Amino acid sequence: MPLILAAHVVCARGQEANDEKHGISLAAVGHATSLFLAVTFVLCVGFDLAFPGHAMYRSWAPLLPGFEWLSWKGFFIGLVEAYAYGWYFALIWVPLYKLTGGRAQS
């Protein structure tokens, strides 16, 4: 078992070095952006509950298919979709960066 773990660590370090050489990690951008959007979604729901007169959910609900205001199902659907939008962004932006911005540094 330790041999497999050591091999995994070596492969992971090689991948990190490869990502650093190319400038940016898809996994890092994907998780960071997704977490940012998920936390923002939770804060927006909290804001809308705290200040119903200034609720914004009508503005962003059309961007989250299946989202229903004030239901646990709708909340978790919105949370998952917000996280997915972060990966959508990363899967498009990181390759574009590597094609354009990554070459400018070389």
Portion in strands: under 5%
What order do the SSEs take from the amino end to the carboxyl end, as H and E?
Answer: HHHHH
Shape: elongated
Helicity level, as a percent range? over 70%
The gyration radius over C-alpha positions equals 19 Å
Biggest beta sheet attributes: none
Question: What are the key terms here?
Answer:
disordered N terminus; mainly alpha; 106 residues
Q: In a nutshell, what does this entry contain?
A:
With 106 residues, this protein is mostly helical. It contains 5 helices and no strands.
SSE blueprint and pairings:
Blueprint: H1 2-22, H2 26-50, H3 57-60, H4 72-99, H5 101-105
Helix pairs in contact: 2-4
Describe the structure in your own words.
- The chain has 106 residues and is mostly helical.
- It is built from five helices and no strands.
- The protein has helices at 2-22, 26-50, 57-60, 72-99, 101-105.
